[in-house]
Specification:
The protein has helices at about 1-25, 30-55, 60-85, 95-115. By secondary structure, the chain is mainly alpha-helical.
Length: about 120
């Protein structure tokens, strides 16, 4: 069970990094925070996956907490960005789409982790 969890979290780290770098590559002046968040979140999840691989006991609850916070934050931010887009307060749907993709990835990982401990 630990090996599959380690692999899923490692893939999630790569996912965060790639999405953050993609958002930065689209417009480096506007999406610096996306790149920093993607790199920072990806690095955190990479470290946590290595700790889980080494079976450090506190790494499991810390990782699940971080993924829960990421999922809730991405859901909140996606809702906020889509609300602004649909109420014509913003014309940029790119950010809303990126954050929605991050939410979906985080929610899928949270679901997979839940299934692995049932």
């Amino acid at each position: 069970m630990t090996r599959s969890i380690y692999i899923f979290i490692l893939l999630y780290a790569v996912f965060l990094f790639v999405v953050g770098m993609y958002s930065y590559s689209v417009n480096p002046h506007l999406y610096v925070v996306g790149a920093l968040g993607g790199v920072g979140g990806g690095f955190l999840m990479f470290v946590m996956s290595m700790l889980i691989r080494k079976k450090v006991q506190w790494a499991f609850p810390a990782t699940y907490s971080a993924i829960g916070v990421f999922t809730l934050t991405f859901a909140w931010r996606a809702g906020t960005f889509w609300y602004k887009y649909y109420t014509h307060q913003s014309t940029d749907s790119f950010v809303a789409t990126i954050v929605t993709v991050l939410f979906i990835g985080s929610a899928l990982l949270a679901l997979q982790l839940y299934r692995s401990f049932r």
